[in-house]
Automatic annotation (TrEMBL):
<dbReference type="InterPro" id="IPR020449">
    <property type="entry name" value="Tscrpt_reg_AraC-type_HTH"/>
</dbReference>
<dbReference type="InterPro" id="IPR003313">
    <property type="entry name" value="AraC-bd"/>
</dbReference>
<dbReference type="InterPro" id="IPR018062">
    <property type="entry name" value="HTH_AraC-typ_CS"/>
</dbReference>
<dbReference type="InterPro" id="IPR037923">
    <property type="entry name" value="HTH-like"/>
</dbReference>
<dbReference type="Pfam" id="PF12833">
    <property type="entry name" value="HTH_18"/>
</dbReference>
<keyword id="KW-0238">DNA-binding</keyword>
<feature type="domain" description="HTH araC/xylS-type">
    <location>
        <begin position="159"/>
        <end position="256"/>
    </location>
</feature>
<dbReference type="InterPro" id="IPR018060">
    <property type="entry name" value="HTH_AraC"/>
</dbReference>
<keyword id="KW-0805">Transcription regulation</keyword>
<dbReference type="Pfam" id="PF02311">
    <property type="entry name" value="AraC_binding"/>
</dbReference>
<keyword id="KW-0804">Transcription</keyword>
<dbReference type="InterPro" id="IPR009057">
    <property type="entry name" value="Homeodomain-like_sf"/>
</dbReference>
<protein>
    <submittedName>
        <fullName>AraC family transcriptional regulator</fullName>
    </submittedName>
</protein>
Length: 269
């Protein structure tokens, strides 16, 4: 989390052209405006959100007769693109619509308030609100891309698969085994899982294992014990997968690991 804020803009208030080195999302609370990204123009209004990705040239300007009011939040991190991808958001699809503006506005408010108060643990609390915000966007995108009569059923199937993987990650797992256990066709489950999360079931399993391994490496377990604890019978293979995933071997990660406190003060644009 970097900052959060809100504003009622003046007529034809313009930002850009500019390129940022962090992610920034705005949600339009009222009024209208234009957003330009990747050489494409979007006409936006109440309930629309637009996402700015690092390195993308963007411009946005409020309407001359109905200038928009919006809330925003800025963030950065190695997993930012991953979370946005899960919600179906990318530089080619930077705009999403929601009919739950009240819910989104409440989350933005809590984010901004948490950062302003800067109490102990505010970084974790703000991060939690941000994940909830991503979850809302993911559901909105899912409703756009999946017929309404099928969305709830598919979401339940995928969530069931996610829970199963989260509980069984330390066991030998195959997509065939998971589909058979959950009672779904392998191809159907894989397709719906990828559509919902942006990852295949096996990619998601690897992500769970690697994230768990990072936590365990901060403790006293040996590399072999960590490998076994996250479902790898071969410590050498685990080390290769860990380095491929994070760019550092488990030993290097453990050596370099240090705590960096976050600055929770925040600032407004």
């Amino acid at each position: 989390m970097l900052f959060a804020g809100h504003a009622q803009t003046a007529a034809q208030h313009k930002v850009g052209p500019q390129v940022l080195d962090y992610h920034l999302v705005h949600t339009v609370v009222s009024g209208r405006g234009n957003f330009r990204c990747v050489h494409r123009d979007y006409r936006l209004e109440r309930g629309n959100s637009f996402f700015i990705f690092p390195g993308e040239l963007v411009t946005y300007v409020s309407d001359s007769s109905e200038p928009w009011a919006y809330r925003w939040v800025g963030f950065k991190g190695e997993r930012a693109d991953e979370f946005l991808s899960k919600a179906g958001i990318s530089p080619d699809k930077p705009v999403i619509s929601s009919d739950r503006l009240r819910r989104l506005t409440a989350l933005y408010y809590q984010l901004e308030k948490t950062l302003q108060l800067a109490r102990p643990g505010c970084d974790m609390q703000a991060g939690g609100y941000l994940r909830l915000l991503f979850g809302e966007y993911a559901q909105d995108r899912l409703r756009e891309e999946v017929p309404k009569e099928d969305a709830s059923v598919i979401q339940q199937q995928v969530e069931q698969a996610i829970r199963w993987l989260t509980l069984q990650y330390y066991q030998p797992i195959s997509i065939e085994q998971m589909a058979r256990t959950l009672g779904y066709h392998r191809t159907h489950l894989s397709k719906m899982f990828k559509q919902h999360t942006g990852l295949s079931p096996m990619q998601f399993l690897l992500k769970i294992r690697m994230e768990r391994a990072k936590l365990l490496l901060q403790g006293p377990l040996t590399i072999e014990q960590v490998a076994s604890s996250v479902g790898f019978g071969d410590a050498l293979y685990f080390s290769k997968q860990f380095k491929k995933y994070y760019g550092r071997s488990p030993s290097e990660y453990r050596h370099d690991q240090q705590i960096n406190p976050y600055d929770c003060g925040g600032s407004n644009l």
